[in-house]
Structures are given as structure tokens and as C-alpha cells.
Specification:
about 140 residues, Topoisomerase I, domain 2, mainly alpha, two-stranded antiparallel sheet, globular, about 60% helix, 2 strands, single chain
């Protein structure tokens, strides 16, 4: 889920107007896609090792905050997938949906996953996601030519 966590971090930073704590990112995720909250810190560290995000201590908040350095702060969801295929392939839930329709943006994928998980905070299996998506949502979400 690294690409997903990256996208949620970006949304949190935009909302707050400053770098975000892990807890703030988790709160954003909990509001939008609860099933993806549990591994936030792990994926932030993974993104940090790729130098896609940066961590520093914020004296005012008395804790560590995450930011997105240039040029990644301006990269679209699609550009991130293209530039970091290994992070994309580790983002199994995005991969399961995005492979059906590569024109979907991040919010589309989040909305689809929320529908498929029924807003639960536990993750269904990847196969279950693919099967449910194929069965119930392809017609609803597929882009028409």
C-alpha cells in the first residue's frame, strides 16, 4: 500500500497546510478508507527509504512530521505509479483495481475500495476484492469509450 499511503499523506498535508504526523495521516485514512490504516507507519518508513517522503522533528508539535520533497510533491497518482513500479506492485489493493482501468485516479480507487470493503476497518483478501469488483462494479466504474 505504499502508493496509497503516499497519496493519503499528500491529501493530509494539503488539508493541514503543513507536514503531517503519522497520527494525522492515520486519521485521514480512517475517514476515507479504514481498512488501510493499520500499516501506515510501516509504509511511511518504506517511502522514506525510497526518498519519496521525508521525516523531521517539529518542535511546535513535539513530534515527527512527514513531508513530500520536490519533485514528488507535484507528481500525480499516475506519475507515481509510472516512476515507482515496485511501490505500485506492493500496493496490492490499488493494483487489483487499477489494472481494470488505468484511467482511474486515486479518489476513484479509494471510493471503489471503500464500497467493496463496505467501510470496514479489516481488509478483505485481494482475490475477494478483484472478484467483487469484477462482479459488481465494472459496469458502474468502467470508463466508456
Amino acid at each position: 500500500m505504499p502508493i496509497m499511503i503516499f497519496s493519503f499523506l499528500r491529501a493530509t498535508i494539503q488539508k493541514l497546510g503543513r507536514p503531517a504526523t503519522t497520527k494525522e495521516v492515520e486519521e485521514e485514512i480512517m475517514q476515507r478508507l479504514p481498512m488501510c490504516t493499520d500499516h501506515t507507519a510501516v509504509h511511511l518508513r518504506e517511502l522514506e527509504s525510497e526518498k519519496v517522503v521525508a521525516k523531521k522533528f517539529d518542535k511546535n508539535l513535539k513530534g515527527f512530521v512527514w513531508s513530500i520533497p520536490k519533485p514528488y510533491d507535484r507528481m500525480s497518482f499516475h506519475e507515481m505509479i509510472e516512476k515507482f513500479p515496485q511501490l505500485y506492485k506492493e500496493s496490492l489493493y490499488i493494483y487489483a483495481i487499477y489494472e481494470f482501468d488505468k484511467t482511474l485516479d486515486f479518489d476513484d480507487v479509494v471510493n471503489i475500495l471503500y464500497d467493496l470493503s463496505e467501510g470496514a476497518d479489516t481488509r478483505p483478501g485481494i482475490k475477494a476484492i478483484k472478484d467483487k469488483f469484477a462482479e459488481k462494479f465494472v459496469e458502474k466504474y468502467a470508463k466508456k469509450d
